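re: ur question from yesterday

yeah so i grabbed the chain u mentioned. its 149 aa long if i counted rite. heres the sequnce exactly as i have it in my notes:
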Amino acid sequence: MKKITLAIAILLITAAGASAQILQPVKWQFGAKKISASEAVIFMKATMDNGWHIYSQNVAEGGPIKTSFTFSPSADFALVGKPAEPKAKNKYEEVFDMDVPYFDKEVVFQQKVKLKNGATTVKGAVEFMACDATQCLPPDEVEFTVAVK
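ran it thru and got these structure tokens back, copy pasting raw so excuse formatting
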């Protein structure tokens, strides 16, 4: 009888675990394109589920967690400026008592790099906060590796 009870308990726990989903409304893709023998652009694309958004890199102090990129140092390349982003939408958010720049649906950030050896691998991470009309998820971080050939 104990074996049957244990088997049923394991089956129920497995079924419950299989049906539980981790909410991940933002998907990231990363790529690179050489624009000359000594320069390349790293593309960092976020695609948000319907109704979800992430915040710009240019959120004022006191606002939500802004999207930010960090790049692992390398002797093979140098960053040229900061990551570029398209024009963000703005909306007033009562909780922060300010207008907040954000992106929905999809956004592509671009980081220009100067190549020192012609080809390299760029590693880094993006930190961001995703929200919809009813909730904000805790800040998340996604690591990436991009080959520049």
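noticed a couple things. Helices lie at 2-19. also The chain has a mean pLDDT of 89.
anyway ttyl
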